[in-house]
Write a structure and sequence with these properties.
There is one protein chain. By secondary structure, the protein is an alpha/beta fold. It has a single domain, classed as Vaccinia Virus protein VP39 (Rossmann fold, 3-Layer(aba) Sandwich), CATH 3.40.50. The protein contains six helices and twelve strands. Strands 1-6-5-4-7-9-10-11 form an eight-stranded mixed sheet. The chain has a two-stranded antiparallel ribbon with strand order 2-3. The longest helix has 14 residues. It is globular. The structure holds S-adenosyl-L-homocysteine (SAH). The site of S-adenosyl-L-homocysteine has 24 residues, from strand 3, helix 4 and strand 5.
Length: 261
């Protein structure tokens, strides 16, 4: 039964090298980069140094859009987003656009990632404690989370993406990041309680398990269907007296699904 699948913890540092690269069939065919005549920043997956200035420009754009949390901006300036997408898409990695990461999934645009992380870190100047991410995808947001918290558990239900993320993340040697393969709908009780839970996939409702696994004083940020009939960003704060739910702007995330594939 899908829901009984136990997540398998995979650390991103150390460990044996993968036997083979992710099979070609796992990654979706990569769309062509349109030749629009617009000058694109020079970013090459093989040349990380080039990307520093491009990332700084992305951060300045995010600041101009109103994003302001220093630690979130620092993380966005530090993590090489182009390492998480197919090399054919690397030159779009710092544009404010979502990108395909294979198996029909997408990495959210930087603006949305930053927005969610700001909501997660709101009012906090110190690193968060333990954080749970639902939907590792390519591992980009997990890397950002590892800068913002002391311990990160990130769970993915698609084995191909779980493995892909592990490969993407290996070079960064983030010893506080633990990748899990399993159904994130049930959370990850072994790591609970969490200072924050963040989901990159949206369902009809927020699973009760996530709220149960949130620490008192903790915050959950997730896309979910709301009374409006749309998917919105929803924040749930767990307090001593109960949970407080706040609905933010409409968003469009990939669906939260149960079971593993
Ligand atoms: N944060 C990711 C975004 C990936 S898109 C990144 O930076 O790349 C959302 C991901 O959520 C997809 O990979 C999808 O497979 C995954 N997902 C959907 N439902 C899930 C579930 N129940 N448990 C774990 N992952 C899930």
């Amino acid at each position: 039964m899908a829901s009984s699948v136990q997540p398998v913890v995979a650390k991103t540092n150390g460990g044996p090298a993968p036997k083979a690269a992710v099979s070609a069939g796992v990654m979706q065919a990569v769309g062509k980069t349109a030749q629009t005549g617009v000058q694109r920043p020079a970013v090459s997956a093989g040349m990380g140094m080039d990307s520093q200035a491009v990332r700084a420009a992305m951060v300045r754009k995010l600041q101009a859009q109103g994003l302001a949390h220093p630690a979130v901006l620092a993380a966005l300036g530090a993590v090489e987003r182009h390492r998480f997408v197919d090399s054919a898409l690397a030159n779009q990695a710092y544009e404010d656009t979502s990108l395909p990461i294979g198996l029909g999934q997408t990495i959210s645009k930087p603006n949305v990632v930053a927005r969610m992380l700001e909501l997660m870190c709101e009012g906090r100047t110190e690193k968060l404690g333990r954080v749970l991410e639902i939907g590792t995808g390519c591992g980009y947001q997990a890397a950002l989370l590892s800068h913002l918290s002391r311990e990160v558990y990130s769970i993915e239900r698609l084995r191909g993406l779980h493995e892909r993320a592990r490969e993407n993340l290996r070079r960064f040697r983030l010893s506080n990041l633990h990748l899990l393969f399993g159904d994130g709908m049930v959370g990850y009780a072994q790591g609970a309680p969490y200072a924050a839970i963040i989901a990159a996939a949206g369902g009809n409702a927020i699973p009760q398990a996530w709220i149960d696994q949130l620490a008192v004083g903790g915050r959950l940020v997730a896309p979910a269907m709301t009374e409006s009939g749309h998917q919105n960003l929803v924040v749930i704060d767990k307090t001593v007296t109960g949970v407080v739910r706040t609905v933010f702007e409409a968003v469009l995330f990939v669906p939260l699904k149960s079971g593993v594939e």
